[in-house]
Specification:
Elements (H helix, E strand, L loop, with lengths): L3 E7 L5 H10 L5 E5 L6 H14 L3 E5 L4 H8 L5 E5 L1 H11 L3 H14 L7 E7 L10 H20 L2 E6 L2 E6 L5
Parallel strand pairs: 1-5, 1-6, 2-3, 2-4, 4-5
Antiparallel strand pairs: 6-7
Helix pairs in contact: 3-5, 4-6, 5-6
C-alpha cells in the first residue's frame, strides 16, 4: 500500500464520516482518528462518547481542536491510517480562537501533503460542504462559508481521491477512474 490522501465532503448527516471509517478500516495498519470537536455542552459530550464507542477499540482517538497540522504530522509516524473528522469543525475552532485562518489552512495543507513523503500511510479527511445552500444572513456566517470553501478546495487539490457523499452514497469526483 502506498501513501494517499483522501478527501470526503458532503452535507450534514450525509454519511461522509461512516464512509471514511469504513474505507479506512479496510486498510492494514494501526488506525488513528483525529477528532476536532470539543465537548462544549452535554449534547456534544454525549455525541462524542457515542462516536468514540461506534469506532470501537480498533481506533485510537486523538482529540485536537486547533493544532491539526501538528497532530497529523505527529500521528503519521505511529499510524498506518489516519481519519481527520472534521475540517469544518476545526475551521470554526480556528476562527474563534484568533490566529490567521489562511496561514493555518496553508499549514494544514502542507502537513497533509507531507503524508506522501512518509512510509505507507493513508490520510482520510472529512469536511462539510457548506456552500450549496442559501447565502448566510450575517457577516460571520458568510466569512465561515467562504473560508470553508477555500479550505475544501485546497485540501481537495492536495488529495489523490475526492468523494462527495450524499444520502449515504459516495460519488468519486477525483482519483483513479476519473474521466
Amino acid at each position: 500500500m502506498s501513501s494517499k490522501i483522501v478527501f470526503i465532503t458532503g452535507g450534514a448527516r450525509s454519511g461522509k464520516s461512516g464512509f471514511a471509517l469504513n474505507a479506512a478500516s479496510a486498510l492494514p495498519g494501526r488506525k488513528g482518528f483525529i477528532a476536532t470537536a470539543t465537548a462544549v455542552d452535554e449534547e456534544m459530550r454525549e455525541r462524542i462518547a457515542r462516536h468514540r464507542a461506534d469506532r470501537g477499540a480498533a481506533w485510537d482517538t486523538i482529540e485536537e481542536p486547533l493544532q491539526l497540522a501538528k497532530a497529523i504530522e505527529e500521528a503519521a509516524g505511529s499510524f498506518g491510517v489516519l481519519v481527520v473528522d472534521c475540517l469544518t469543525v476545526w475551521l470554526s475552532n480556528v476562527m474563534w480562537s484568533g490566529p490567521d485562518v489562511m496561514k493555518e489552512v496553508e499549514t494544514l495543507v502542507r502537513a497533509c501533503e507531507k503524508i506522501r513523503d512518509r512510509r505507507c500511510i493513508s490520510l482520510y479527511t472529512v469536511s462539510n460542504e457548506v456552500g450549496m445552500g442559501i447565502v448566510p444572513a450575517n457577516e460571520t456566517a458568510r466569512k465561515f462559508r467562504d473560508l470553508a470553501g477555500i479550505l475544501n478546495q485546497k485540501i481537495a487539490a492536495a488529495s489523490d481521491e475526492v468523494y462527495l457523499v450524499t444520502a449515504g452514497i459516495p460519488i468519486q469526483i477525483k482519483g483513479k477512474g476519473e474521466s
